[in-house]
Amino acid sequence: MVTESRPGRIWALVAAQAARRGGRVSAADACVAAVAAVQVSGAWLIAAGGAEADHLMWATDEVSEVLAELQLTLGEGPDPDALAYGGPALASDLDDLEAVRRWPLFASAAGQAGAAAVFVFPLQHGAIRVGVMGLYREWPGPLSGAQLGDALVFADTATLLLLEAQDRAAGEVAAGSGPGGQPAGLAVHRAEIDQATGMLTEQLGVGIAEAFIRLRAYAYAHDRRLSDLAGDIVARRLRLRPDPDPCQDGQT
Amino acid sequence: MDGELLSETFVELTDTLVAGFDVIDFLHVLTDRSVQLLDVSAAGLLLADPRGELRVVAASSEAARLLELFQLQNDQGPCLDCFRSGRPVACADLAAAATRWPRFAPAARQAGFAAVQALPMRLREQVIGALNLFRAGPGALAPAEIRVGQALADVATISLLHERSMRHSDTVNEQLQTALNSRVIIEQAKGKLAERLGVDTDQAFSLLRDRARTSNRRLSDLARAFVDGTETLSGLNASETRAGLPADRQPRQ
């Protein structure tokens, strides 16, 4: 059911995909790797700046592209639901009464496009929302417990990779800051990290996504474990300030 | 056990089926009720996340020392044992548990607890989490109390599924993940409010919760709006809290 090595295993799959491509690990690699690992027919990635979907960032195949664009046009479907409600939107059978009730337009259009089941995961961490990852299958049926768990960790990985890509200093920060390049905080969850992130929005005068990026960048730059750094901030032993150089200020 | 409070608690649960129900606040109410109804001093509800971690989503107190005891149990402890086995796990005297849980037992004792009980949150064949109860004095819970505790854990499970049909396994997973993410939003909001007002994070939580109730909003919605910046929580200030930070803290850059 759940394994302790899941984040490490998933990261290895994503990194292997990037290596096959010959490029730096990106959220698109998480998408592609998820298709094989979760055993679905295709995947797509939508970027969002907050509660509204922005645009299609990546699709592994034509059907995925159609499913993503359909939802952007209709404003209806598991993509907008996942973004709005802050949780996965799972439909193991688009012919099901439940799916038709939830998305009357999307359910039938998606079926015509060749999808029998869709599983959409918000790319989020608390109030930080950067998009959604959608998966579809040509056959109906739910994800197994193991597949669902894997899909959720693929989504977490994509979230961190998207945030890193957004970081202006992404060129200086390695694709991952943990051992073997795995993003710090992927495998371990600590409440202090989230509390410290919230505190930084006030200390730096930035939004929650930027605060999270800055927290991780500081940990990397000072060679500190993310959870230890967060503990210092929460205990008020350490306080971050906006850069004195206005060009590097947290305000965008 | 207070029979009236017990009846009241279960009657209250029918309120959970109405629209606008706030599941996160309800889970906190359940942990409060656990402390009031049972002979325990602290309670926490933990859910398993896809990484394999047990994460607290609601507790009778947001004191850091208590929350730390929940986080500690990802390596060892009654909750982990309970989650893995799907069966209740109890220890009537943590002083004798140093071999069983070499890190958890001393930490729990240091936090002022002498006994512990964990009860599984079960949904059909799946164990989705645990209700963790702590006692200040040694001794096991009476069988009648354990039955009530298990019923409270079962109610917590049911409340996670209220919004849609329980027929679909899809629904369960959607609600679980939403609840776990809501907790993260609340932690982010605690940090932001604690920093803004110069109070501790557990005081920040109380302020958030009070404001959610008086303004009739879901706790997680209010927390999200506050973190996003669309809600300023105007009118909340440190003087509403019991104690702010000492003025002589010297933070280093």
Task: Walk me through the topology.
The complex is a heterodimer of chains A (252) and B (253).
Chain A: H1 6-21, H2 27-38, E1 42-48, E2 53-59, H3 62-74, H4 78-85, E3 89-91, H5 97-102, H6 104-113, E4 117-125, E5 128-137, H7 145-166, H8 191-204, H9 208-221, H10 226-234
Antiparallel strand pairs in A: 1-2, 1-5, 3-4, 4-5
Chain B: H1 3-12, H2 23-37, E1 42-48, E2 54-59, H3 64-72, H4 78-85, E3 89-91, H5 104-110, E4 115-123, E5 126-135, H6 143-159, H7 169-197, H8 201-214, H9 219-228
Antiparallel strand pairs in B: 1-2, 1-5, 3-4, 4-5
Helix pairs in contact in B: 2-6, 7-8, 7-9
Give me some keywords for this one.
heterodimer; A: 252 residues; alpha+beta; Beta-Lactamase; Arc Repressor Mutant, subunit A; 2 domains; five-stranded antiparallel sheet; 10 helices; disordered C terminus; B: 253 residues; 9 helices; 47% helix; 14% strand
Model description:
The complex is a heterodimer of chains A (252) and B (253). With 252 residues, chain A is α+β, with helices and mostly antiparallel strands. Chain A has 2 domains: 6-171, Beta-Lactamase; 188-248, Arc Repressor Mutant, subunit A (Orthogonal Bundle), CATH 1.10.10. Chain A is built from 10 helices and 5 strands, in the order ααββααβααββαααα. In chain A, strands 2-1-5-4-3 form a 5-stranded antiparallel sheet, with helices on both faces. In chain A, a hairpin with a 2-residue loop joins strand 4 (117-125) and strand 5 (128-137). In chain A, helix 2 (27-38) packs antiparallel against helix 7, helix 3 packs antiparallel against helix 6 and helix 8 packs across helix 10. Chain A is globular and about 55 Å long. With 253 residues, chain B is α+β, with helices and mostly antiparallel strands. Chain B has 2 domains: 3-163, 2-Layer Sandwich (Beta-Lactamase), CATH 3.30.450; 176-230, Arc Repressor Mutant, subunit A (Orthogonal Bundle), CATH 1.10.10. Helices cover 47% and strands 14% of the residues of chain B. Chain B contains 9 helices and 5 strands; from the N terminus they run H-H-E-E-H-H-E-H-E-E-H-H-H-H. Chain B has helices at residues 3-12, 23-37, 64-72, 78-85, 104-110, 143-159, 169-197, 201-214, 219-228; strands at residues 42-48, 54-59, 89-91, 115-123, 126-135. In chain B, strands 2-1-5-4-3 form a 5-stranded antiparallel sheet, with helices on both faces. In chain B, helix 7 packs across helix 9 (219-228). Chain B is globular and about 50 Å long. The termini of chain B are far apart. Mean pLDDT of chain B is 86; it is low at 241-253. Chains A and B meet through strand 3, strand 4, helix 7 and helix 8 of A and helix 7 and helix 9 of B.
